[in-house]
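Example for tutorial group B:
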């Protein structure tokens, strides 16, 4: 049973821990270990799985996707284990912020999609699976990764409420807004018809 403690001090601690977990730049680390170059100088300059895929290394991209998702889930599950549900939500949000704005990279991080899905899966796995399906459908139909992200974010709060996880409603809304904010340029390119397809290499 978790030791439930929702005091401000405990929640603040898990906010810091969640941020630190989320700020681990797995894409950047894998690119260096696998001699793929500096992701910040490749394609979009993003540190996430989609940009890793632009290096042509599918294994590195898959590992980045899994690890970025796992860190979001880990932040939630550890906080839930030691401090309860409130701390889990705080840690999940902090992990997302850490991925998007890591202090180690001068607050220039990824778009947060994999971490977002990991957080939702750990908070409420049925809703998380539904979001993953929404991402998959959006990405496969359009062959645009950001469309999958937008589909998953747009439906996440609906899935949380519909599947009985209404306590995470406000977190779902905040995460959705954060995903949309991080994809604002992608949305502009989608409207202009210039958003690159999945796997396309950008010179």
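The residue assignment follows.
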């Amino acid at each position: 049973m978790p030791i439930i403690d929702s005091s401000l001090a405990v929640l603040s601690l898990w906010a810091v821990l969640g941020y630190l977990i989320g700020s681990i730049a797995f894409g950047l680390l894998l690119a260096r270990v696998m001699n793929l170059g500096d992701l910040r100088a490749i394609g979009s300059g993003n540190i996430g799985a989609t940009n890793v895929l632009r290096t042509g290394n599918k294994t590195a991209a898959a590992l980045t996707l899994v690890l970025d998702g796992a860190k979001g889930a880990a932040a939630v599950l550890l906080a839930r284990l030691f401090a309860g549900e409130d701390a889990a939500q705080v840690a999940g949000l902090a992990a997302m912020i850490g991925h998007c704005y890591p202090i180690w990279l001068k607050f220039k991080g990824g778009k947060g999609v994999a971490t977002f899905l990991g957080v939702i899966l750990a908070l409420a796995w049925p809703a998380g699976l539904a979001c993953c399906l929404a991402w998959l459908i959006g990405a496969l139909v359009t062959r645009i990764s950001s469309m999958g992200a937008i589909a998953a974010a747009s439906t996440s709060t609906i899935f949380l409420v519909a599947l009985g996880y209404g306590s995470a409603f406000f977190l779902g809304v905040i995460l959705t807004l954060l995903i949309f904010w991080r994809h604002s340029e992608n949305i502009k390119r989608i409207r202009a018809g210039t958003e690159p397809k999945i796997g396309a290499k950008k010179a």
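The two ends are 52 Å apart (CA to CA). Compare this with the pattern of hydrophobic and polar residues in the output above.
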